Amino acid sequence: MKKSIVMATTALVLASCGANKETLTTPAIDDFNYTVEQFADMQILRYRVPEIEQLSLQQQELLYYLTEAALQGRDILFDQNGKYNLAIRQLLEAIYTDPNQDKASADFKALELYLKRVWVSNGIHHHYGGDKFVPAFSQTYFETAVKALPVEQLPLREGETVETLLATLVPVIFDPAVDAKRVNQAAGEDLVLTSACNYYDGVTQVEVEDFYAKMKQPNDPMPISYGLNSKLVKKDGVIYEDVYKVGGLYSAALEKVVYWLEKAKAVAENDQQREVIQKLIEFNQTGHLKTFDEYAILWVKDTASTIDFVTGFTETYGDPLGMKASWEALINFKNVEATKRTTIISDNAQWFEDHSPIAEEFKKEEVKGVTAKVITAAMLGGDCYPTTPIGINLPNANWIRAAHGSKSVTIENITEAYDQASHGNGFLEEFAWSPNEIALMDAYKSQTDNLHTDLHECLGHGSGKLLPGVDPDALKAYGAVIEETRADLFGLYFMADPKMVELGLLPNDSAYKAQYYSYFMNGLMTQLTRVELGKNIEQSHMRNRQLITKWVYHKSQTDGDRAVEIRERDGKQFVVINDYKLLQKHLGELLAEIQRIKSTGDYKAAQNIVETYAVKVDLDLHKEILERYAKLNIAPYKGFVNPVYKASFDKNGKFTGLSLNYTEGYAEQHLRYSRDYSPLTVKK
Ligand code: ZN
Predict the structure, then answer these.
(1) Cβ neighbours of residue 104 under 8 Å, at least 6 residues apart?
(2) What are the tens digits of pLDDT across the range 642-652?
(3) 453 Cα to the center of ligand 1, angstroms
């Protein structure tokens, strides 16, 4: 480890020569500008890549090649999200950068906003809701602007003219009835025909289902993920798969991905990782799904490498039938310090089990903690860009998970960006009771959030046991909420235990209060900002948070101890915590009851506690919260720009170092990606 630090220092000196903005040294949190811009319902942020300077020169080189592979898949996702997305993006960008456009006109500004939203969504449908965007510029404006473009800037395919191109694209952009939803989930409709995503062409849902039903072998212990990497097409009456591979669909992009993976393979950290990359190359070349499974198994077993990656066809949320995978990339490296934290927790799993406030008969005699790792994202691509998850658990194939395990990661530098960007947005000032709570959360919220997640994931879910003969599905529809409640309570209860400070997981015995206050403020009040007025709580994590906080609140009322209360000031309601230690006691009491419900399979009690505390919303409070939140003008969705990586090579082509630039703007980045990383667009 020490060796790599010395090497990294050398690289740092090399990289900082002659470059003022570009450096390998990570900017300090306080010097870093996390926010980029805000538009529509989006806020664009940037993230730091801390500790990158501690990677060895070879690791930096590997990381660099993987980041290049990650960027080459961007066009694939645009095309998967909709047949005309690439052509539309190309035209919008051409108009946007056309020097003859009047940049002050209302139409131009509307087009700019539309293009920014297209970049966020990798297409013309909202990234989250899936509804088609409504353009605020006129059809005439668009047509005139397109016709004024030099012909070499138009995405014209063989035999196409500007007129035929417009005839195709205008309804796709402007007619609300055409391609209205990217992924239609409405029961009773043909989900394939009514979804605008581009995983199928000319086939009905029934034809798709028949096609894949014939491929599946019943009772296969190692079932292939059929359909994962192809478009299903019907042409001249014949249905066939157009497979994503070199020489197949998306070849131009996948060739580039393979090119960079080959380079990465040559500087792999170890043989295991080299084998992983080799398998992934093979999969891209052949499109064989058996090879994909072999790759996934090798990947999950590689826990020794520092650098890790996802680059390929992974998640299936974009297909209404949940078979076809969108292209995504997440290039990352292990956060060594933070991973020590998860290791400490795992190593002490038995202590936690023994000291859990649940009945002895429900405790596990021998408990094994799950090791999860904390990572630093270095590059987001495809379906992880610009909106990104904060944790990933892969692979998806259930049989591989059962036989070989899975990797669970928390992406801490992304969480950091979310937290830092929310500082000063007025949220805490509006909803926290006093400056004391704000100071507490400023100091410890990020740290305790991460710790709570670790406790929840590494220990909470794995603790406790069912009594002999109890059906694991006894709680039926309430099972998921009860399980999440249990894992959350486990984390909350131990957060206030002196053991946390003793193990070095928290800096002092009041840090946990930041977690308690923010958890109760969220559970009793502010999470309602994500629920429509008049609706109940549906989402299971939101249910478990309300269950915990409302139950404890009521317990505190009936006991008359005022550990937590809701107080009114200037016509606004606030959560006030008067006694944190008492709060922990109540959390322990609830954990004991939730564990009893789980261990004994007490369906009636599960139903009763969920329906009483987790679901219903106080309409007046909800209204008040929504009004207060609306005034803050906070964008509900966040996206990111990536840092710009620059590799240096000596005159013999030998890699000499990496430098990062964090100053690129949002439009600037997308235009650069479209210029330098768009193998699938039609160019003259
Ligand atoms: Zn969970």
Answers:
(1) none
(2) 999 999 999 99
(3) 8
